[in-house]
Design goal:
- By secondary structure, the protein is mainly alpha-helical.
- Helix content is 43%, strand content 3%.
- The protein has a single domain, classed as Orthogonal Bundle (Myeloperoxidase, subunit C).
- It contains 21 helices and 6 strands.
- Helix 9 runs parallel beside helix 19.
- The longest helix has 29 residues.
- It binds 2-acetamido-2-deoxy-beta-D-glucopyranose (NAG) (3 copies).
- One 2-acetamido-2-deoxy-beta-D-glucopyranose (NAG) binds next to helix 12.
């Protein structure tokens, strides 16, 4: 898509129609969900469900995948161990780094919030898109617990002269921490799981600082505005900044540099397009990019194993945001597609994804290929190109390419040359992303004007936002920040083994 777009990027209308054609692959209004394989009012109106692009495989089908394949599917654990487990770290050929990996995780966890307690196929993120619920909380109640109620700002604490998320003690939202984490190390964020990784807390801190920074700017422009209006308008500005950064830094990184991507909602004005979005189960399945994660985390020459990195909130303040951003920007992330690249510590996540897809009765990968306008694969060899051992293993496990499952296929498909993943991840991922980003209400003609964002100053903040500004305007000293490892360092990384800690 991005290659094609390159040809036409001066032709606004063609570019538009590419985006619209892409987005139109996503039904809007949404259709099915995991309970209903036919169109009905409950499936449309009950937003506690993720939607679905294809209905579930009916319960009375002869095989688990419909009509093709074996009577029982291969053990998910065995699939993961034989085909997904990392042997040796394979870096992203695009130079993708951990700054990207943590951005991906931080960003997507505002709309991927599986609500296990209600059953499979439910979500806690009722905004179904880029609402910044991961910054502001996913309910009004949580938002109020996180707000300072002064000048529009969010609660914070000052440590070593810098702003950090508040403790749970002062912003009493429900966060997920293991029992042995002391109260004075439990930070509160809009997303309950963000205590898990210092990389997520780094972004939570940056967006918190950004929110409070923008509040100051707006207050200066509008001295008479009350707390509520400052808060609400700042939130819209940060939503705009997020979409801008996702398109112009993040998707730009993924798509290579053939084309300069631009976030310009006006491109779609006058075109038939629905400004709404509903997150799909398939998008959630597809976005489990755990091969990105390294074998250990290296900060200023110190190496952290998973056991000392996960839930270690003191890393955030011990090193500070600058140091962490620099560390994450120079450490390579793994290649997502092509198989054999998930660290053993997190392999269970992939197993969980496969198991969930079975409970949800997801249709075969080839059915999704067709649904997204792609030719179905005719053999496992065609899927994995050149990986004969892998193809033979899949043949043995599944028996029939038309019974191949969605998620393992996305991870095992041959990556494009020099690319982080292959055709299906791009062709299926892009429509969901474009729809989710440009279908945001702030992109609609009714919203997309300076007054929505408090005037020209706020509008300009959105239109000039970037990853490096997000960091550099919110730290004291700004060094390299980006979504790819700088070329010089890529070479050195290969030479120098880090110190053990
Ligand atoms: C949505 O569906 C679930 C499961 O059937 C149900 O528990 C919940 O009450 C429904 N929500 C609404 C708003 O109807
Ligand atoms: C928060 O956690 C407490 C204690 O575990 C629980 O009683 C309460 O229902 C939770 N609140 C929400 C909104 O999940
Ligand atoms: C957490 O990180 C700090 C450095 O910030 C380190 O000194 C400490 O050992 C780590 N904690 C654990 C439990 O590994």
């Amino acid at each position: 898509f991005w290659n094609t777009a390159n040809f036409y990027h001066t032709e606004k209308t063609l570019y538009n129609s590419l985006i619209v054609v892409r987005s139109n692959l996503i039904p809007s209004p949404p259709t099915y969900n995991s309970k209903y394989g036919y169109i009905n009012w409950e499936a449309y109106s009950n937003i506690t469900y993720f939607t679905r692009i294809l209905p579930p495989v009916p319960d009375d089908c002869p095989t688990p995948m419909g009509t093709k394949g074996k009577m029982t599917l291969p053990d998910a654990q065995i699939i993961a161990e034989k085909l997904l487990l990392r042997k040796k770290f394979i870096p992203s050929p695009q130079g993708t780094n951990l700054m990207f990996a943590f951005f991906a995780q931080h960003f997507t966890h505002q709309f991927f919030k599986t609500h296990g307690r209600l059953g499979r196929g439910f979500t806690k993120a009722l905004g179904h898109g880029v609402d910044l619920g991961h910054v502001y909380g996913d309910t009004l109640e949580n938002q109020h617990k996180l707000r300072l109620f002064k000048d529009g700002k969010m609660k914070y604490q000052i440590v070593n002269g810098e702003m950090y998320p508040p403790l749970v003690a002062s912003a009493p939202v429900n966060m997920t921490y293991p029992r042995d984490i002391p109260m004075n190390q439990r930070l509160a964020t809009g997303q309950e799981v963000f205590g898990l990784l210092p990389g997520l807390l780094t972004y939570a801190t940056l967006w918190l600082r950004e929110h409070n920074r923008v509040c100051d700017i707006l207050k200066e422009e509008h001295p008479t505005w009350n707390d509520e209006q400052l808060f609400q308008t700042t939130r819209l500005i940060l939503i705009g900044e997020t979409i801008k950064i996702i398109i112009e830094d993040y998707v730009q990184h993924l798509s290579g540099y053939f084309l300069k991507l631009k976030f310009d909602p006006e491109m779609l004005f006058g075109v038939q397009f629905q400004y709404r979005n509903r997150i799909a189960v398939e998008f959630n399945q597809l976005y489990h990019w755990h091969p990105l994660m390294p074998d250990s985390f290296i900060i200023k020459g110190d190496e952290y194993e998973y056991s000392s990195f996960l839930f270690n909130t003191s890393i955030l303040m011990d090193y500070g945001v600058e140091t962490l951003v620099e560390a994450f920007s120079i450490q390579p992330a793994g290649r997502i597609g092509g198989g054999h690249n998930i660290n053993s510590k997190i392999l269970h996540v992939a197993v969980g994804v496969i198991r969930e897809s079975r409970l949800l009765r997801l249709q075969p990968f080839n059915e999704y290929r067709k649904r997204f306008g792609l030719r179905p694969y005719e053999s496992f060899q065609e899927l994995t190109v050149g990986e004969e051992e892998m193809a033979a293993e899949l043949e043995n496990l599944y028996g029939d390419i038309d019974a191949m499952e969605f998620y393992p296929a996305l991870l095992l498909e041959k990556p494009y040359p020099g690319n982080i993943f292959g055709e299906s991840m791009v062709e299926m991922g892009a429509p969901f992303s474009l729809k989710g980003l440009l279908g945001n209400p702030i992109c609609s003609p009714e919203y997309w004007k300076p007054s929505t964002f408090g005037g020209k100053t706020g509008f300009d903040i959105i239109n000039t936002a970037s990853l490096s500004k997000l960091v550099c305007l919110n730290v004291k000293k700004c060094s390299y920040v980006g979504f790819s490892v700088p070329e010089g360092i890529r070479k050195c990384n290969k030479l120098k083994p880090p110190e053990k800690k």
